[in-house]
Specification:
five-stranded antiparallel β-sheet, two-stranded parallel sheet, 23% helix, 44% strand, globular
């Protein structure tokens, strides 16, 4: 029986394919996309280390770039555990050819002013570079607030 696959929009550390595949081995990148009228911030409170993690907030005329992955629906529980503190939601994203897709993503209403650790921000930037997100957007990601890594 074939496995049911879903479309997942990664905009934070899960853009790094190896990180996502460690959580959901079936994850396969299918292209890049953007979410209109949202902005990526380091604003989600992490219960595990108290730092900030990637999150999206509504912001007219802004956009969040990310990576579309297909993954087995049976692996969503793994992703839910890794994304504790986020809510799983469906949003319409637009791929690089201008086509709209309904994709699953994670969004949180648990906010912090704490910056991300450098190691976490590196996953975001490396994932953006790996998938050739727009150069201006990568520069935006590189400027996100971060702090020295915890020991």
């Amino acid at each position: 029986m074939p496995k049911t696959q879903i479309l997942y929009f990664a905009f934070g550390s899960n853009m790094k394919t190896s990180r996502l595949q460690a959580r959901t081995p079936s994850a396969n990148p299918v292209g890049i996309a953007k979410l209109k009228d949202y902005k990526l911030e380091i604003s989600k409170y992490s219960r595990s280390d108290g730092s900030g993690k990637g999150n999206i907030i509504e912001s007219k005329s802004d956009e969040v770039w990310g990576v579309l992955f297909k993954l087995n629906e049976s692996e969503l529980s793994n992703l839910d555990r890794a994304e504790a503190g986020y809510d799983r939601v469906l949003k319409t994203v637009i791929d690089s050819e201008g086509k709209e897709h309904e994709a699953l993503l994670y969004q949180s209403d648990k906010y912090t002013d704490e910056p991300a650790f450098e190691w976490y921000k590196k996953y975001i930037v490396d994932g953006a570079k790996e998938h050739n997100l727009p150069e201006g957007y990568i520069k935006y990601l590189e400027k996100l607030p971060s702090k020295g890594d915890n020991a």
